[in-house]
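ARCHIVE CARD
SHELF: 3
SLOT: left
DATA:
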Amino acid sequence: MKKFAALAFLFLVQTAHADVLAIGATNRKYPDVKAFVQKLAGDYRDSVTLLNLGVTDSKEDLIALKIGTGAIHNIVVSTHHGNEYGSTELALAFAESVARQPIQGQTIYIVPVLNITGYNSRSREERGGNGVSYDPNRNYPSPCGTEGPFTLKSTKLVADLIEREKIVASATLHTFSPAVMYPWGISTRDLDTGYTPEFKKIVADATVESRYPSGNSTELLYPADGTFEDYAFMKHGIWSILFELGYSHSPNDDAIKKMIEVNVPGLRRMFENAPKTNAANHSFHGKCDGMARSLDRHDE
């Protein structure tokens, strides 16, 4: 029976490959993403709801999906950085997989493209209403500083969503250096949240197929202040996990197909096994390190 279930799920993932990649990832723009999620919502009316989170600085509607009806609410947020279109493709593939086979007891919210203007132009940053461009994943409140906070409407809209829907676990999707990581990722030497064993279990579940390196964000990557991951944990005790996918910011369709194949099962397993309640003690009590902040390369 378990073998049959595994084969059935593999079929779902492989089918998602074909549907997601039909347009061609390198050519997809935000109208194509909206068309895809609108079709998904129409095809799976019993499990999928299309949401409009609000209007961004570019006067675009920020679209999200709500999949399932379970009491536990989790979220996937993709494409903070517009040049990381591979992350969009994984979000869409995961959305289709969960639409076809919802996770029991859960409602999954998926924001496939947070940075709309950057995605359309394949540029990292997003232009704010004041004409200045910002890095969306440095735009959240942070105990050690931020390039915001919330100078972009998009980041405020997703922050409002996670608070309103009482999100328990989150996955943010990026490219280009394979790793799956957890807080703290800020400019400090005090990296232990107090929940390192729990986070290690979550990232281990997420990387069974991908075999990506996993661990603390600052240790595996570099310190970055104002990120979604640290904000979500600091503010709400959300079990927030950062996925760095694949090996390039410019993957071809074959590379994206592989990315989907090894990460859709990991995302599902992560949410299935993640804690069912938020972390109780999630404030930062360490010391910030100004010298460490200079190590932020802004390339992930």
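SLOT: right
DATA:
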Amino acid sequence: MKKTFTLFIAVTFTLSLFAGGIVTNTNQSASYIRMMIRDASLGIDAVFYNPAGLTLLEDGFYFSVNNQTIFQEQIISNAYPFLNTNEYIGDISAPLFPGIYAAYKTGKFAFSLGFNPIGGGGSGTYNTGLPSFETGVSNLVPMLLANEIPTDKYSADIFFEGQSIFWGLQAGVSYQINDMISVYAGGRYVMASNSYKGYIRDIKINP
């Protein structure tokens, strides 16, 4: 019974380590582009990645402002047999992806502030829409066929654009217990903004 309980506690604690989720941005520093693992950072971006490590800074005030400009192509694949295409290409852009960090180290204490896009941070434009938009239109073909009306084509003008940003504002205090161990206590306030626009129009079929 004791071993089972210990295993339960270990599994529960391990699962809690993934609290950020898959939508949490990890590129919170321009240094991330050069080194994609910043979890042991002892620089100013430790405000986000390793706040307890701020106690290893020299005494003084530290301030950092960095930005990343991100553009990429996102392809969504779908194998639904009645769709006109299996790929939907989106242009993703985030011209502003800032990270602002400040820390003040004095003795065994370090006080820190951070402001950055915790999640989202860009816009995506799909000039031919998304599979979920077009599936309903494509279903017109098998529906008409089921009613013995010969049909093999459809067309529609579909568009989608979405923007999402989750701003995170954090503050905390780090304390050095000894040369090996430091602790951190802090909080983060997240402000979410999402907007979407699009249309499905000019639906045509050839019965």
